[in-house]
Write a structure and sequence with these properties.
- The N and C termini lie far apart (about 65 Å).
- The longest helix is centred in the last third of the chain and has 20 residues.
- The protein has four helices and no strands.
- The protein is about 50% helix and about 0% strand.
- It is mainly α.
Length: about 80
């Protein structure tokens, strides 16, 4: 059996998937709306922080995600009385 006959990799993969010109990605970004308020001030403040991502370089997104995660953990701890 020839090695080419046993290769199961998909050779028709689109290498540009997810690029800035991908019509699905552009449409999804255009249709995005921020979530509605939850009524829990600490959670709403954490979710609002995500709006900062729009003006930041991608490399700085992790710091925002870390802060939002911490804020949400704090909000959960407050609900538990911890």
């Amino acid at each position: 059996m020839d090695e080419a006959d046993t290769d199961t990799r998909d050779t028709d993969t689109d290498t540009d998937a997810g690029s800035d010109t991908d019509p699905v990605t552009v449409a999804d970004a255009r249709d995005w709306t921020p979530p509605r308020p939850t009524g829990v001030p600490a959670v709403d403040a954490a979710v609002e922080k995500l709006q900062e991502l729009d003006g930041l370089p991608t490399g700085e997104h992790v710091a925002v995600y870390d802060e939002v995660h911490r804020l949400l953990q704090d909000a959960l701890a407050d609900l538990d009385g911890s």
